[in-house]
Amino acid sequence: MATKGTAAAAYPSAARISDSPCYLQYSASLKCLEEFGSDKSKCQDHFDVYKECKKKEREARLERNKTRSLFS
């Protein structure tokens, strides 16, 4: 059984959005929504940047996981 410290080292935490490399893009999207309220079309650029960041983050995670084995 792995300890919490070991698990954190082996698997970077994405449990908290503030730990995400996309936190700045996420925050900018929310700030835009606060500024423009229900007019989401004005925030589309922020949404697109955040979506692209999350895509790259996911691809990097999948690439890291390719080298890991469940049995080693």
UniProtKB/TrEMBL annotation:
Keywords: Disulfide bond. InterPro entries: CHCH (IPR010625), Cys_alpha_HP_mot_SF (IPR009069). The keyword Transport does not apply. The keyword Disulfide bond applies. This is CHCH domain-containing protein. Residues 22-56 form the CHCH domain. Pfam families: CHCH. It comes from Eutrema salsugineum (Saltwater cress).
